[in-house]
Design brief:
The chain has 1 helix and 8 strands. With 135 residues, the protein is mainly beta. An 8-stranded antiparallel barrel has the order 1-2-3-4-5-6-7-8. A hairpin with a 2-residue loop joins β6 and β7. It is globular and about 40 Å long.
């Protein structure tokens, strides 16, 4: 569960964008989190594989689904909630997310998110970074 929350927070915060003003299509706005992001990550400590999808909407909502493969078992985890962004996503912004996960537990997370072209770098409070790719 701790690994799920860690990845969830990183994913959610990394992709959280509250940019509501845009000069064009969201896919062309390098400074926006709005849209769908994908990631794949392998834990260097135990080889656990994780991949997922994170979607941020213009109205401040997010949804995330993560698949975790560990010791031959597959686990699916999801979270739905709201987010806010403070700061410039091109420089590194604080993304705060709250929601409810697939276990019915409340989720409260904070990450540092930086958007660079089609990549989103999400760093959690422990200093771990996960890179997301814009769909």
């Amino acid at each position: 569960m701790k690994k799920y929350l860690k990845l969830l927070f990183a994913a959610i915060f990394a992709t959280l964008s509250f940019t509501l003003v845009s000069c064009g299509d969201d896919d062309d706005d390098n400074g926006s989190l709005v849209g769908t992001w994908y990631y794949a990550w392998t834990d260097p400590d135990d080889g656990e594989e994780m991949y997922g999808e994170l979607t941020f909407t213009k109205d401040g909502k997010y949804s995330m689904t993560e698949t975790d493969i560990y010791e031959g078992q597959t686990y699916v985890y999801s979270v739905n909630g709201t987010y806010t962004v403070t700061g410039d996503l091109k420089e590194g912004a604080v993304v705060y997310m709250i929601g409810v996960d697939s276990n019915g537990d409340n989720v409260d997370a904070r990450i540092i998110a930086k958007v660079d072209g089609g990549l989103l770098y999400a760093t959690d409070t422990e200093g771990d970074t996960i890179v997301f790719t814009r769909k």
